[in-house]
Amino acid sequence: MLRNKLFILIISISSLSLILSGIVYYKNMNSIFEDQAILSIKHDKKIFNSYLKEKKEQIKNLSFGVANNENTKLSLNLISNYQDPKNYSKETFDYEKQRLLELSSQWVSLKEGISLSLYDKNRSLVITNSELEGKRNKGYLSYENQKAIFVDLIDKKNQSFPKLKDINNFKKNSFTFVQKENSIVSVYLKEVYLGEKLVGYLKVCFNIDSSFLNTLKENFMNNVIFQLDNQKYIFVDNLNKKAFNSIKDSKDYLIKKSKITDGKTSIYLVNILNKETINKKIRKTIETIILIWFMILSITIFLSYIFTKKYILNPIENLQKIIENIKKNTKLSSLKTNKKTKDEIKNISNDFKQLSTALDKNIAFLNSYQSIMDEAAIVSKSDLKGKITYVNDNFVTISGYTREESIGSPHSLIRHPDTPKEVFEDLWNTIQNKKIWKGTLKNKRKDGSYYWVNLIIRPLLDENDNITKYIAFRYDITELIEQRETIKKAANTDKLTGLCNRSKLINDIKKFDMPALSFFNVDSFRQVNDFYGHLFGDRLIIELASFLQEEFINNKNIRIYRTQADEFALLSNLSSSFEKESFFGEVYKLNRKINNNLFKIENEDLNLNITSSISYENKDKLLPTANMALKHAKKNAVDLLVYKDDYSLDKMYENNIKWTKKLKIAISEDKIVPFFQPIINNKTKKIEKYESLVRLIDEDDKVISPFFFLEISKKTKHYGTITKTVIKKSFEKFKDSDYEFSINLTIEDILNEDIQSYIFFMLEKYQIGQKVVFEIVESESIENFAEVSKFISEVKKYGVKIAIDDFGTGYSNFEYLLKLKADFVKIDGSMIKDIHKNEDSRAVVSVIVDFAKKMNMKTIAEFVENKEILDVLYELDIDYSQGYHFSAPKKDID
Q1: Where in the numbering of this chain does the PAC domain appear (predicted)?
Q2: What's the CATH number for 493-647?
Q3: Domains 377-482 and 655-881 fall in the same CATH topology
Q4: Of 178, 347, 341, the residue nearest 267 (C-alpha)
Q5: Phi and psi (nearest 5°) for 8?
Q6: Would the CA dihedral through 839, 845, 848, 849 be positive or negative?
Q7: 3-state secondary structure of 676
Q8: Integer CA distances (angstroms), 310 to 3, 234, 307, 338, 346, in order
Q9: pLDDT for 157-197, tens place per residue?
Q10: Distance between CA atoms of residues 253 and 273, nearest Å
Q11: Is the pLDDT of residue 239 over 80?
């Protein structure tokens, strides 16, 4: 019965499908061919849009990279804020713009139609590297006699500005399409910020023209023509243009257009269809289909019977037998199985036969997996009420409870009292909602000790999605938790002394209601390190820390901290039983005891002097005010100082603002100048070289020392400009002189890529490297020694010499002299100014001189203020002298 019905159904469906498909095909043939044309246009449109999107992303990425480039931001900031047509410094600003143009060559590719322009914050052109209407424009804005000119690097004689559209016409951070004669220019405008300050604008363009479209021509399915704003056409080649002009008004052709872009200017993709070609295809296709219909219908009737019997009915009968055997739990392997064929239903029968074997394998795998989990994890199961129904060996081992004690007990058996009840409420709410709970818990052993676990609890569901039980996997992480606590303790502990560190001090201040803080600093500790060595200094700090701990061992009101190298802190939480007067008294007594105590280190007896400060300010001001009071105490040589509003931060800020303003005026008016102090050859008694020292000329022509403005310049980012100015004016001063001249450089100067580049630029330009001495200003240490060494090697190729400034205070490490390949050692003035009456200073300087002579280095003494000092320098055979005994720094050289 099923066989006959299935045969009739197959024949009916086949016949009806053929007839209906023919009718539908005939009626819609014309639209089919048109739809194919539309699909091909969509294909071409997709290719074009994909390429356009890629171009836009490329432009956006380029714009982001340029706008966030440190050199771009710094240069635009300098140009926007400081270039002045009335007092235009071509050396500075033309150099910056040339650098921007060099960078732009790395960013743009005119071959790919990409161009770039930079504008200052007033939307005035700075540089451009572009191609407009077939003409390249590469140059920058400059001024001559207060007149704006365009310095064209391609056409040197040209000073007229390129025809660039006003950037006010473009939206920021979006694409604007502008129509040109034979192309469309896509413009992307982006603001450039230095921090939160707008310093300029970046404009990136790319052209959509015939050259642009030819890159995509091979991927198009049609002969592509583009139309702009329904009026102007762009042709990929001349053949398309000629063909289109002859047929665009003909009724025998069908023209299809598809809009590609939005905006002020729209682009359309145009495709041309020949109607006669479509009609011929329709007639021929219909004739072929009618013939095929009759052939298929005959063959279908014949094959339907064979197919139905062999490939559907017989396999179904076999499948039914297999299913019956499965129900009776008959072994499937006892049934005959055939090889795999192309008959899908027969393959299903074979798969059923192998099902039993696969299930057995899976069960074995699951058993193995359970065994592994039992080995690795602490496993337990519980019923819906939370009572334990199963535990593995690991549970028994780590908890200390036997299986008999565990099974039937609630899980609270191992709950530790330190865990808040809210955690368990969250746990139960989660798993009862059929979700997995994960977390870290502290559990309790039978003996009362604890252990930490990473816990995962999962509800197990039946076929009706109801919870049947819960299973818990725990992993012992006690060791990790204890290690974390150890690390946390280390983060709050000073490694050398074992005292709490600055980080712990900051956290403790936050916890106290009325904190009082005292800083105290060991006077002249640096000299101890320099004279005895750092290991000796460390032992002194350890001894002082022990002294403090012993002093306050029974005082629970005061906590001790080591905040940095030679600085300690005392912190107290003031209360009715311990007020300000008590805290002050404790700090005062400590000062007296330390100053009167004799510290014995390695058979050396040392008397220490300390300077202390106290602050009772609010928590948010406690640290800075205590630190400020300490600075005032050291500056005024006071042993103990309590913070008052007279030392407030407001005055510091006011002073910073004042000197920032003076700096800006001095830079804009070119009043940052070098003064020159002579350096005397002690053998010839003649001036042999000069040191360039920066000065600021105030509004009333007063000469200002760098003490007042140099640190401020570093905070306001004017320091680099000052350094460049001193370098430039010193090179210009000595270019025609026979004297050598030295310029001070800090480690930060050397590691600054911009200042490095400027130094090499000036050495190349002036070619007077043999006259130049770079004095490296002393530092506690050189972190990036490889970079500093590389810089020294490079400048020495120009004949430059290297001097180590202030030797004897910070470096005090003769190894640095060797590694830095120094030519001169400038002995620090603190050891020279009293060398005629201080035997210790004389001994140290003598050692430095002996070492320098052995290493073939020249020595220079600073702070030579009288003849008595000079006579001692002659005796010690120091090579050069410098100081007010000869001359103060002057504006000119002799």
Answers
A1: 435-489
A2: 3.30.70.270
A3: no
A4: 178
A5: -60, -40
A6: negative
A7: strand
A8: 11, 64, 5, 15, 10
A9: 887 888 888 888 888 888 888 777 667 788 899 999 998 99
A10: 6
A11: no
Q: Which of 568-582, 589-603, 773-787 is predicted least confidently?
A: 773-787
> In this structure, what are the phi and psi dihedrals at residue 745, rounded to the nearest 5 degrees?
-130, 135
Query: How many Cβ atoms from other residues are within 10 Å of residue 809's Cβ?
Result: 17
Residue type, 356: S
Asked if 574 and 635 count as a contact pair (C-beta separation under 8 A), the reply is no
CATH superfamily to which 655-881 belongs: EAL domain (3.20.20.450)
Whether domain 377-482 has CATH 3.30.450.20: the reply is yes
Q: Say if residues 820 and 775 touch (Cβ distance below 8 Å).
A: no
pLDDT of residue 685: 94
CA gap 849, 244 in Å, rounded: 92
Give dist(CA 659, CA 653) in Å, integer.
10
Pair 526, 778: CB distance under 8 Å: no
704 or 352: whose pLDDT is higher? 704
Residue 393 CB partners (closer than 8 Å, separation 6+): 374
Q: Could you report how far apart the first and last alpha carbons of the chain are, in Å?
A: 127
**Cα-based distances in Å from 193 to 3, 75, 102, 449, 734:** 81, 11, 21, 59, 39
Average pLDDT taken over every residue of the chain: 80
**pLDDT value at residue 334:** 44
Alpha carbon of 873 to those of 729, 740, 842, 864, 870: distances in Å? 32, 22, 9, 9, 5
> Strand 880-881 relative to strand 378-382: parallel, antiparallel, unpaired?
unpaired
851, HSE (Cβ side, Cα atoms, 13 Å): 19
- The string of pLDDT tens digits covering residues 6-50 is 556 666 766 676 666 666 565 555 566 566 667 777 787 888 888
CA atoms of 606 and 599, how far apart (whole Å): 5
- Which CA distances in Å does 424 have to 412, 416, 453, 671? 10, 11, 15, 72
The residues near 871 (Cβ < 8 Å, ≥ 6 apart) are 836
> For residues 767 and 734, what is the distance between their CA atoms, to the nearest angstrom?
11
Residue closest to 647 by CA, chosen among 667, 664, 666, 627? 627
**pLDDT value at position 795?**
94
Q: What is the pLDDT of residue 877?
A: 95
pLDDT in tens, 418-451: 888 888 888 888 988 989 998 888 888 988 888 8
Give the confidence band of 335 by pLDDT, cuts at 50, 70, 90: very low
- Given a cut of 80, whether residue 340 has pLDDT beyond it is no
Banded model confidence at residue 332, pLDDT cuts 50, 70, 90: very low
User: What is the distance, to the nearest Å, from the Cα of residue 696 to the centroid of all Cα atoms in its chain?
Assistant: 37
Q: What token pair was written down for 889?
A: 């720094």
Cα–Cα distance measured from residue 631 to residue 32, given in angstroms and rounded to the nearest whole number: 89
Residue 168 CA, distance from chain mean position:
33
User: What are the tens digits of pLDDT across the range 476-531?
Assistant: 888 777 766 665 666 678 888 888 888 889 889 988 888 999 998 888 787 777 77
> Higher pLDDT residue, 812 or 478?
478
Indicate the angle between helix axes 534-551 and 525-532, nearest 10 degrees.
140
In angstroms, the CA 290 to CA 18 distance is 10
Contact 862, 832 (CB under 8 A): yes
Number of CB atoms found within 10 A of residue 597's CB = 13
* Cβ-based neighbour number of residue 645 at 10 Å: 9
Max Cα-Cα span within the chain = 133
pLDDT at 270 over 60: yes
State the Cα–Cα distance between residues 712 and 718, nearest whole angstrom.
8
Q: Output Rg (C-alpha) for the chain, integer angstroms.
A: 44
- The pLDDT value recorded for residue 841 is 83
Between CA 74 and CA 64 the distance in angstroms is 15
Please state, in angstroms and rounded to a whole number, the distance separating the CA atoms of residues 723 and 730.
11
Question: What is the SS3 assignment for 638?
Answer: coil
